[in-house]
Task: inverse folding
């Protein structure tokens, strides 16, 4: 019998959020369509003992070494998804995450892990399921806030990678337990589709006897929930020049990165192979950059550069940036609002058409607040 071949294009990814007891929530397993280039791995931490001594006579010297496995490093995983807002069907349908004509997203469970405790409740009476924090679904949009993210630990999930075999042969499933969401990066490739790059860590990778059964998969086969980056608009308002001013900036590209800067803790007991314990959060960081052509129009990119380079008395400037990925009134779209961004002085890029790149750092109302960013999904 020939060996089974496994192809990445046959693979599927499932995410199962965990409750406070560390168990998977019944009826809450998302199938997440991912792009090519996903990865997962786990390494070991080792110690080396070596001998290095002078001659013991007759030009004899011991030069050996010994290796010890100290612990498993935390499992690391990453994959990319399209940002896919949609409006749930009116009335319950198979695989729905919302059953009352609400706005939702194919990848909503990943946002729940990034921004909060990811506690998902499926009522026994058949009423609408809901997230405990971070995500609020409504008739007009789905809102994601980070006000519940000032925690030592955030939401966890088991993530399953099912690698499909040759047609007619068995697949193999790997489970990464107790995964946390460390970082999400949103790219605005002008000729592409809105994409989010997700990455995080987990405790251990194990092989499973079977692939999990999906229960949340509404709209994953839809064709009207992809967002075209070329339609993206940016509103930038600031008082850096002394009065409230909105700059006219037309983007050619950009990105936003949201990071929890997590650390995984692992015991260091001698004589055993220690396994990763759990994660703790670090400083929350929201930053990014955008590019546009150098323009001398009224309140254009040249005026912005001049205002920033001339603001020698402003230690921390404050810009209200609102990215509307997919257009201001288009559907589907994502809106990313950052009311207090510190902009660095733009740098010039000398190409056929001269452009400028502007880096920014989203800040909270104060150093203790978690209102740097809010996200709004609007489905078609």
Result:
């Amino acid at each position: 019998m020939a060996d089974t071949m496994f192809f990445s294009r046959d693979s599927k990814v499932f995410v199962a959020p965990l409750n406070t007891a560390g168990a998977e929530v019944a009826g809450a397993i998302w199938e997440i369509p991912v792009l090519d280039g996903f990865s997962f791995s786990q390494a070991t931490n080792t110690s080396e003992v070596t001998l290095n001594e002078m001659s013991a006579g007759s030009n004899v010297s011991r030069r050996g070494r010994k290796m010890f496995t100290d612990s498993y490093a935390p499992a690391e995983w990453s994959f990319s998804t399209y940002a896919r807002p949609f409006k749930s069907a009116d009335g319950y349908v198979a695989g729905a995450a919302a059953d009352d004509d609400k706005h939702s997203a194919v990848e909503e469970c990943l946002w729940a892990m990034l921004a909060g405790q990811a506690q998902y409740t499926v009522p026994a009476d058949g009423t609408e399921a809901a997230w405990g924090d971070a995500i609020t679904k409504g008739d007009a949009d789905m809102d994601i806030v980070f006000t519940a993210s000032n925690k030592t630990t955030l939401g966890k999930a088991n993530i399953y990678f099912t690698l499909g075999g040759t047609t007619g042969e068995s697949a193999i499933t790997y489970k990464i337990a107790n995964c946390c969401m460390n970082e999400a990066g949103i790219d605005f490739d002008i000729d592409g589709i809105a994409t989010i790059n997700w990455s995080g860590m987990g405790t251990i990778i194990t092989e499973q006897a079977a692939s999990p059964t999906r229960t949340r998969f509404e709209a994953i086969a839809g064709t009207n929930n992809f967002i075209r980056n070329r339609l993206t608009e940016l509103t930038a308002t600031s008082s850096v020049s002394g009065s409230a001013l909105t700059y006219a900036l037309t983007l050619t590209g950009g990105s936003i990165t949201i990071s929890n800067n997590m650390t995984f803790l692992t015991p260091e007991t001698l004589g055993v192979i220690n396994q990763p314990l759990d994660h703790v959060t670090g400083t929350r960081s929201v930053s990014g950059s955008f590019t546009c052509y150098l323009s001398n129009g009224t309140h254009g990119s040249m005026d912005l550069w001049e205002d920033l380079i001339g603001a020698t008395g402003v230690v921390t400037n404050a810009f209200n940036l609102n990215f509307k990925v997919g257009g201001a009134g288009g559907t589907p779209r994502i809106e990313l609002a950052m009311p207090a961004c510190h902009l660095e002085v733009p740098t010039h890029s000398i190409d056929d058409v001269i452009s400028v790149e502007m880096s920014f750092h989203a800040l909270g109302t104060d150093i203790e607040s978690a209102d740097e960013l809010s996200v709004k999904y609007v489905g078609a």
